[in-house]
Write a structure and sequence with these properties.
Helix content is 46%, strand content 11%. It has 101 residues and is mainly α.
Length: 101
């Protein structure tokens, strides 16, 4: 994974349900990065539930699906990156973590 290879500590979950369980138990999460397309629930639903659970954690959604962009932007409480190149992703993550250049 790009973020881990860049020296960031990453916890990876394979579904929105698993990610919500991790969020409810973990203390030191600085940023949530999620794809919009996920099993069990889509990224927009996950983002809304994650924000309810941990509103202090910034959230970045990644998508390649044009049809989801308006729905994501309407949520208003997260950042959206579409499309993304590795450099843009790393730059935005660093900025959201307060490490921006």
């Amino acid at each position: 994974m790009l973020l881990a290879a860049s020296g960031m500590q990453v916890s990876q979950c394979d579904s929105g349900k698993a990610a919500l369980a991790t969020l409810s138990q973990a203390d030191s999460i600085g940023l949530i990065v999620s794809d919009v397309a996920m099993p069990e629930m889509d990224g927009v639903e996950f983002a809304a539930r994650a924000h309810e659970l941990r509103p202090e954690i910034p959230l970045l959604l990644l998508t390649g699906h044009d049809s989801m962009v308006d729905q994501i932007i309407a949520q208003g409480s997260m950042a959206l990156l579409k499309p993304y190149e590795p450099e843009r992703l790393l730059g935005l993550v660093e900025e959201m973590l307060g490490r921006g250049h």
